[in-house]
Amino acid sequence: MGCDRNCGLIAGAVIGAVLAVFGGILMPVGDMLIERTIKKEVVLEEGTIAYQNWVKTGTEVYRQFWIYDVQNPQEVVANSSKIKVKQRGPYTYRVRYLAKKNITHDPENHTVSFLQPNAAIFEPSLSAGTENDTWTVLNLAVAYNNTADGVYTVFSGKDNISQVAIIDTYKGKKNLSYWPSYCDMINGTDAASFPPFVEKTRVLRFFSSDICRSIYAVFGAEINLKGIPVYRFVLPSMAFASPLQNPDNHCFCTETVISNNCTSYGVLDIGRCKEGKPVYISLPHFLHASPDIAEPIEGLTPNEDEHSTYLDVEPITGFTLRFAKRLQINILVKPAKKIEALKGLKRNYIVPILWLNETGTIGDEKAEMFRKRVTGKINLLGLVEITLLSVGVVMFVAFMISYCACRSKKVK
């Protein structure tokens, strides 16, 4: 009887040990299987999850415009007073609903080329007025429709997953021809996705044709998006800092008068890529801009929550599941003897014209699919690993304690 009991206890301990060992082995094996599956599914080729969502996004993307209405134009012309503005809006359009076109695969270079068609549909229910409220908004819609961005050529990741979606060339070039030195380089992806297995320490680099340059985002917080853990990466203030604050930005300062010898910050002169027009871009309401930029303008209320740019990236796949791109368009107004309205000005102004908020969030249906095919399987595997390891350890310890106790009684 004692032998049977001892044998049973030993058998229980052995089973526990086997379960614990199996759970421990399953961890690296499971991680390897997950990594292999992810590497396969994020490649930009027909049949993968990434390709399906890359060709035509399942996310509804909206672009909202707020127009700055100048309240005191005569006073400014006569006295060079501060410009008083009041924002009007939003005027909302649905954008990015068309599939990429002219998709061409290069199996030798492992690249994919495409055009991103632009189109806009006005959404009255999400707007503060109609398209006829202001000619500026109407012209924006007309200018945006029936155009295309590109040609982009990106790496498919077939031969090197760490390169997937990274831009090789834009309009056939590896550089922009707008900026001196390395500022002219086209870096990173288009921000729709990034190479997988994103860590918090990674700097996410991406190119935006809207601002005529490459830029970057850094980790900000962990977020739960519709049951999917994501990392929020934010555009830091250092991206638009002056060369004094961030020496890496020295080649984005291309003149010394308006920039006060390159000491002003928070705005970027993009005239070179806008046919020489005096266009400056910034964050809305001059968020993170130097005081000399915002001082001549009244009515601005910069707010980090409403005016910052961020990307919510699922770290395992590198897919951007939610984003908010906030951008302000400004023009330089300065004294001009040959223009009647400007010849009396005594100062330069960087005048805000409008700001936009382009947002997109993964839909409920896509989120459910993502949970089932990606995060759900990973979580289940992790639960099985922990369960086997925990149960195995508990069984082994419990049965060994019982066995030792029985042996001790038998000796006495």
TrEMBL record:
Compartments, record wording: Apical cell membrane; Cell membrane; Golgi apparatus; Membrane raft
Transmembrane segments: 7-29, 380-406
Keyword Manganese tagged: no
Key words, A-Z: Cell adhesion, Cell membrane, Disulfide bond, Glycoprotein, Golgi apparatus, Isopeptide bond, Lipid transport, Lipoprotein, Membrane, Palmitate, Receptor, Transmembrane, Transmembrane helix, Transport, Ubl conjugation
A Pfam family per the record: CD36
Keyword Ubl conjugation listed: yes
Protein's membrane topology: Multi-pass membrane protein
Swiss-Prot/TrEMBL catalytic activity: butanoate(out) = butanoate(in); (9Z)-octadecenoate(out) = (9Z)-octadecenoate(in); (9Z,12Z)-octadecadienoate(out) = (9Z,12Z)-octadecadienoate(in); hexadecanoate(out) = hexadecanoate(in)
Record-stated family: Belongs to the CD36 family.
PANTHER family to which the protein is assigned, alphabetical: PLATELET GLYCOPROTEIN 4, SCAVENGER RECEPTOR CLASS B TYPE-1 SR-B1
Protein name: Platelet glycoprotein 4
